[in-house]
Amino acid sequence: MKNSCILITVAVCSIVFLTTKILGISYSEEKQLSIYEFSTLDGIEVICPKVFMHAGSENNKVMALTENDLRILVELELRKAGVTLISETLLKKSIHEGNPPPNCGELEVFVEVSSIEVFKDDANTEPDVYAIKVSTEFLQFVKLVRNQEIVTMARTWPLRSWVVGRGLILTGKNKAEKGIKDAVARQIGEFLNDYLNSNPINPSKTNN
After folding, report:
1. Which domain holds residue 153?
2. How far apart are CA 128 and CA 131, in angstroms?
3. What is the pLDDT of residue 14?
């Protein structure tokens, strides 16, 4: 009987630990809630995904990955989570017409690839190491407190700017593409976890 009780206690602790890890929001979102007592993601209904990838010409020789490839990856992750998307073209049109969606924001993913020179004895000058920086941030229309007539687009997630640059990767050329995709997917997953925590979506909801 004593052994049985011990096993049950361990099992319950394991379940609680796993549940916390799965459902836990990001550190940035925790700080946002603790300081301001609300999430800036609350009420967002439509998202415009954007991807910016910068790589020098020397890096493109060994990397077939493109901005469009990453954009597709990001959009698929958002759609699978039930998020309603709007294209950049439609968003710009609505802004130009003075009628932007009130509950809309931009999710921007930045990828920067730089080669690192490694001194070698042979004649091979092709870089073997790449420094890759991946950052994801959410922007939305905001009004200044001191002047409510001033409306601009500002980053509201993550809360701290230093959190944005967390995705720094050093990798070999053969693993560069996978490293980028994994980092992007991980950061999109972190955003979605925070977003869905504030905006639960009906599982039956689909995007056309």
Report:
1. 2-198
2. 10
3. 32
Residue 100 to residue 18: CA distance in whole angstroms:
41
Return the CA Rg of the chain: 21
Residue 81 domain flag: yes
- Answer whether residue 121 is part of any domain: yes
Query: Structure tokens of 140?
Result: 């939305």
Could you tell me the pTM of the whole model? 0.78
Number of domains the chain contains: 1
Residues 47-61 pLDDT 10s: 999 999 988 666 556
Specify if 82 maps to a domain.
yes
User: Can you tell me the distance from the alpha carbon of 18 to that of 157, in angstroms, rounded to the nearest whole number?
Assistant: 25
For 101-148, what is each residue's pLDDT tens digit? 879 999 999 999 887 766 555 555 566 788 888 999 999 988 899 998
Examine residue 178 and state whether it is found in any structural domain, yes or no: yes
